[in-house]
Amino acid sequence: MSNQPLLLFLHGVGDGDPEDIWSSRLTDTLVHLGYPSLSKERVLAPKYAHLLRGSDDNRPLPKVTIKEPSRDAAKQSRREFERRTGAIEFRLGQHDRGRGRFAGDAVVNFAVGLPPFIQARNYIGNVQIRAQVLNRILEQLPQSGDLVIVGHSLGSVIAADLVRRLPIGLKVTGMVTIGSPLANGSFDVDKLKETLKEPPTNLVWWVNFWNGHDPVAAHRGVSSVFPWMLDFRIRTKVSPRVHAAQEYLADEAVGEAIGFALFGSRSREVAEIDQDPDLPLDAAELFALLALRYAHLMKTRLSGDQLDRFSGALRQVQADVVGELQQRNLAEGRATPSTVARLAFDVSDSHAKVPEPLPSRHFSKDEAVVLLTVLAAENVIKPFEISLSKEFWRGTMKDLAAEMGLGSQYGADVFTAAKLAQEALTAGGVNWIKWGAMGAGAAAIVVATGGLALAAGAGLAGAAVITSALASFGPGGMIGGLITAGTLVTAGGGGIAYSLASTGTTAETLEAVVERRLAAAILRRLQLLEPDPSLWRILVETEIEVRRKYARLDEFSDEAAAALKELKRKIDALDRALRYLRDNGLEPSAPEETQGPTQ
After folding, report:
1. How many Å apart are CA 378 and CA 375, to the nearest integer?
2. Are 345 and 353 in contact (CB under 8 A)?
3. With 121 labelled, which of 202, 319, 356, 493 sits at a CA distance of 20 to 30 A?
4. What tens digit of pLDDT does each residue of 202-217 get?
């Protein structure tokens, strides 16, 4: 494999023949994981143990070749590095820096002073020996190409010392350190903590593995010193060889990191999953596809820093959303619709292209009211938050509405309706997109009422499906948030009125629900659609319930009681919404619609 990066293995004190280490244990681990075996011609394992005992070379330290970029370039470089690091964390698992162990540094410092560790002491304290080792390693490296560095123990210190001194034509496609003492201040050679404050521009990513039983690692990683890199903990049995390179290289997580750095993803294409080209989308899949399409359309309007950040966020969100849908379907024994399955990609491969959702199918104007009202008010790249121009979002909504066969004016009306609803509920001009206001509190309303069914006009789902979807995705993510919002914008019946009036529902949550329902009603009016007959009744029933609770508490509570303030805020929001409906001809004329709560 001619384009495979070179592997540079930097051994520690007492590791023995470095060639034996990689050719046996590491090769076995890689093959076990499904990677190709290592080719001897693509591995460099310099032997420098004898150089650590003394110096007969007068050459100076190799110069630093990787210079710090300008401020703007450094910002861009750091963002790209973090994107790649996020991809590696997605592949390997959750970062774990550890907490350290009491007196751990004292143990390491004491050990370094012992005769068996004189080589480590010499590298730390003798500049000439450092120079001798670094020059020996550099002599064996090419001037250009891709390089993967694996450093064990003292070898990890040498790796950190070496990375900024490499030929400028060499790119480090991955650096893996194992059993590293770099978190100990005694190993801060050449002020590495300061000189590596930012990731070198020639380094694609760096991950460190530490073993909880390894006394050299002292029960922690090294991200306390270099916070931009990743730490992972491995677990092995207690043994005298717990610090040995062979023990680390036998671990599958370590092998996965090295294998990915050398060979990339084991499959450049996402594995085939059970998919059905004719299976209709359920509520979760429909909301997810529309949200992702909306976000991809927004991306085409951005440039520069905004485009970089938004693209990085969207990449992670799409991977998470598609993965959640696939896992949910697998657990339920349901095939995944092909329109969803085609959006999967290997997020751990930083070079993998993110598939773009296909243009949306056509919707009727009635069907689209709830979908687009919810999209306009929710954060479709949740949990990331990026402030973008309101006009960008409006323009993107017009594009999406046109794709859906609704016409661009429909998209403009979605935002006009949302703005009018916000103004109706507030005294002045404020930011009318209140992302996250429906959150967990709104989801609790759905759960408490046993799963409110989406109205038939929305064409989405019934109560059982909604309850199941929230159980699968939770309210915190993008899918759960969209389902919750869509449910509460369309739900009817006395259950929602009682839940909104409950003291367990905050005024902010009530305002968010009322605002979105009012926005949907205004959109219907702007598009000359039949009004939703349930809205007036729900608002009236909710107001009656809230006033009852207020009257009951007001009799004995302090005037400044927090509960009274919350209830008063709810009453104000409901009064404003009802007044808007009345003033704009949206009050039902049928007598039964103006009666009090149903029994």
Report:
1. 5
2. yes
3. 202
4. 999 999 999 888 888 7
- Alpha-carbon distance values, 231 to 191, 225, 311 (Å): 21, 11, 26
Backbone region of residue 313 per phi and psi (left: phi > 0; alpha: psi in -120 to 50; beta: other values): alpha
Q: Tokens 């909104």 label which residue?
A: 500
- Kindly tell me the sign of the dihedral angle through the C-alpha atoms of 455, 461, 464, 466: negative
Q: How far is CA 586 from CA 32, 338, 367, 417, in A?
A: 68, 42, 20, 14
Task: For residues 120 and 118, give the distance between their C-alpha atoms in angstroms, rounded to a whole number.
Answer: 5
Residue 174 tokens read as: 């991955």
User: In sequence order, what are the beta bridge partners of 56?
Assistant: none
Q: If you average pLDDT over residues 31-49, what whole number do you get?
A: 89
Whole-prediction pTM: 0.64
Question: Which amino acid type is present at position 367?
Answer: E
Residue 369 burial by Cβ neighbours in a 10 Å radius (0-12, 13-18, 19+): buried
Instruction: Give the whole-number percent of the chain exceeding pLDDT 90.
Output: 42
Which pLDDT score, from 0 to 100, does residue 255 have? 93
Q: Which of 37, 77, 80, 88 is nearest to 346 (CA)?
A: 88
pLDDT value, residue 219: 67
- Taking CA atoms, 265 is separated from 23, 257, 347, 532, in Å, by 22, 10, 10, 51
- Number of helices (H) and strands (E) in the chain: give both, helices first: 23, 8
CB–CB of 313/387 below 8 Å? no
Please list, in sequence order, all residues whose beta carbon lies within 8 angstroms of the beta carbon of residue 188, skipping any fewer than 6 positions away: 225
pLDDT tens digits, 231-273: 999 887 777 788 888 889 999 999 999 999 998 865 433 444 4
Q: How far is CA 569 from CA 198, 426, 539, in A?
A: 49, 11, 14
Spatial CB neighbours of 574, under 8 Å, sequence gap ≥ 6: 510, 514, 539, 542, 543, 546
* pLDDT value for 456: 36
